[in-house]
Amino acid sequence: MNADEFRKLALALPGAEEGAHHAHPDFRIGGRIFASIAPDGVRGMVKLDPAQQSLCVTAEPDAYVLAAGAWGRGGATMVVLAKARAPSVRRALAAAHAFALVSAQARKAPGKSRSTPPRKRSDR
Fold first, then answer.
1. Cβ 51 vs Cβ 76: under 8 Å
2. Can you give the residue range of the structural domain that contains 83?
3. Is residue 32 part of a domain?
4. What is the pLDDT of residues 17-61, one digit of tens each?
5. What is the number of domains present in the chain?
6. I need a labelling partner for 51 at 20 to 30 A (CA). Which of 41, 61, 99, 121 fits?
7. Is residue 100 part of a domain?
8. CA 44, CA 90: separation in Å to the nearest integer?
9. Can you give the pTM of this predicted structure?
10. Which letter, b or e, does each residue of 19-46 get, where b requires 16 or more Cβ atoms within 10 Å of its Cβ?
């Protein structure tokens, strides 16, 4: 797997568009980033939910690594492209695409309400 193959797999997903974020390529659905390619072109990133992230990292620890800090805890999963296999990356990209699509649709839903009321400053 290399950056060009990663790009082709990402753009093959329905409605996926390429953009740029912090001077490197990203892939979006509904305005939400679901994947990107690191500036070095050696790694990709897929934004997964916690269960999907755990599955990828556990199944292929040489190919999938949590991004550093809060990004990783939030689902950002680095893909070591040279160690990743196309079928696995295709599945991870599809999962990230679906996760982002659900998030984008929820954000645009009419009458969307918060699950918990906002806290007052004195509650913090």
1. no
2. 3-106
3. yes
4. 999 988 899 999 988 999 999 999 999 999 999 999 999 999 999
5. 1
6. 41
7. yes
8. 12
9. 0.84
10. eeeeeebbbbbbebbbbbbbeeeebbbb
Burial of 57 (0-12, 13-18, 19+ CB in 10 A): middle
pLDDT tens digits, one per residue of 87-109 = 999 999 999 999 999 876 776 65
- Residue 124 maps to a domain: no
- For residue 123, what are the contacts with CB-CB under 8 A and spacing of at least 6? none
Residue 49's identity, in one-letter code, is D
Q: How far is CA 112 from CA 30, 101, 107, in A?
A: 17, 16, 7
Whether 99 is in a domain gets the answer yes
* Max intra-chain CA distance, the chain: 51
CATH number at residue 49: 3.90.1150.30
The whole-angstrom separation of Cα 17 and Cα 61 is 28
pLDDT of res. 111: 59
